[in-house]
């Protein structure tokens, strides 16, 4: 029994090499490439953009769900893709397509310890909240990156569950039976956490630094030295799900706000920061209730 347990333990190098050797690792979604190509050639052609995106009915439904989220900030209900493009603009629609299509590439059947719909709800709450937080703090030019980073921050969890299922199952077992934290269990059986694994796929996809850092440092944003603002914002949104117990996930149990937030995001004081956080609870409740599948 002990030998079987030991055989499940991988070093970080083993896990990284395992990722490099995966033959069917998801590639950039076709719809994302089509939208980016269209925006490069015909940036203001909303009719063609609506036609391109509208071919994917599931994606269209999710775009409207995101646009109508109370945390996304629109003042009126969006009932069609064309209206969403008109209100949001092509660049914002492109951000939503990027986040949703990349998230969809990792979709998998529910397994013990990972319910896809709960995962998606958590991701959507963090993404839409991160966008709203960025705008409220005056980082308007980073709000799109904050949304995408928030939507994708936990993709490393799905990569682990899909490609290292035995280790993932053991991780879930030890946190349920032995009370080990998810992070400690990951490091024990993979030698890495979902942050580093998410960083691997984001580099493989050649995503921008803001997004790579959001995957790699959403639990410890101080590690993102070169572009820390978006990871800090995603970290705040992620912690809010735990604080409010809305859209919370077990791998974030024990996650707490990093103390350097006050200085990095330029709050006047720690009290002001927590006032800012508390103001979001009712918004999270409303947004959570609005997510329907």
What keyword list fits this structure?
0% strand, mainly alpha, 293 residues, Hypothetical protein af1432, globular
Short structural description:
The protein has 293 residues and is mainly α. It has helices at residues 2-7, 12-20, 30-41, 46-54, 57-67, 81-88, 90-105, 116-136, 143-152, 155-163, 165-177, 182-190, 194-204, 209-216, 229-244, 261-264, 270-278, 281-290.
- Strand portion: under 5%
Helix-strand string: HHHHHHHHHHHHHHHHHH
Principal-axis shape equals globular
Mean pLDDT over the residues: 92
Assembly type of the chains comes to single chain
What is the number of independent domains? 2
How many strands? 0
Count of alpha and pi helical runs: 18
How does the major sheet shape up? none
Structure classification: mainly alpha
CATH class of the largest domain: Mainly Alpha
